[in-house]
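User: Thanks for the earlier help. One more: Cytochrome. Can you show the sequence and predicted structure together?

Assistant: Of course, both are below.
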Amino acid sequence: MTTDLAEVFARLPEILRERRPYPLLADLRDSSPYPASDGVVVVAKHEHCSAILRDPRISSDRSRARIFRQDIRPASRKLVDLDPPDHTRLRSLVSKAFTGRALVPAVPRISATVHDLLNAVPADGPFDVIRDFASPLALSTVCAQLGIPAEDHELVGGWSKTLSRGLYPLPMGSVDQEATENAARAGGRLLVYFKKLLAEPRSAPRGPVLDTLLYAGDEENRLSESEVLGICVLLVNAGYETTVDLVGNGVRALLEHPDQLRRLAEDPELAPAVVDEVLRYDSPAQITTRVAVSDLTVGGLRIAAGDLLVLLLGAANRDPAVFTRPDEFDPGRTEPVRHLAFASGPHFCLGGGLARAEGAAAFAAFAGRVIEPKLLADRLVYKATPSLRGPEVLEVAFDGMRAAAPVPSRVTAGHGAGREGSRP
């Protein structure tokens, strides 16, 4: 291999902004697992990533990695960074808000929002799929779940974007100091905002997810105020940014594969399968990390306790050892869906069901209503979110908009959060 793996790894945030990053990610996968530097191991094969995400000898708490000096260890009580028993307790309380049954009332609202947004697209086009469709859909959905007033949506969304631009799960990389500082301030502002929101006297429900968080458990086992606030910040950030990326990546994939776009337009019930293929083919969440808490071996490589494991989920989702024709976009795959876009194991994404419902509604409506859409490739720009991947600008030319047609309930229903690695 002629690829300089160290150079590719160091450029990961930049690579994920490229239009075609996967050949370079394949180089990293084919050589993995391998030590990128002292105390940092790259893992990108599906088999190894899946096993690590489920292994009890692995921690989600990055502060346990020996590469961090004691004085700069990232302190966090976020749900995604916790291990048992703290994670088990919080997860059991928070998950009540994301069961299939709990999400059922959100489906009609998602469908209505999708069609309202398409109705508002100027007839003379072009329109920016991110600005005019994906972003307002994802933002309004997560804000409705948390009871955030409509007049505050853009404010909260702006903080979330700033927070994502400074989040990088590695101690090295290309996130500059200004982005990191801006992200810290945005996170603090979100915490203050939710604290004020909780303090407001209300007669109406605050939002189904927030209500569940406030009243989950009993007197002896309830979420503290600080836990509720931290989970709210996590949910608005993860539920907004990654869903925008899902819709943006999916629309791009459909436009570049017009045969699949036509199939979906003719049969909107294919939308859930399209969602899962988009998650596999061009994953919004590309990188996550774990820490070995004891010595172990992965793929023949010795991993020492304290090593930081960098999991390249997007590369694993194109592993030819698991997926036939992995670089082809094919929602009609007959093999079991085993992508890791929502991670796996104890930290399997709580909001996966809601994201699937949004993606299915968005893809079905886009395919069925937008007449002769064409990607304006010269205007495609990817955003600077270091461990996520999705367009910041995705402009589409089109010939008109069809009237909305009823969407079968099977398109958006049945996306419960408890289902891992299976197609609805």
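User: Great, one quick takeaway?

Assistant: The chain has one domain: 5-412.
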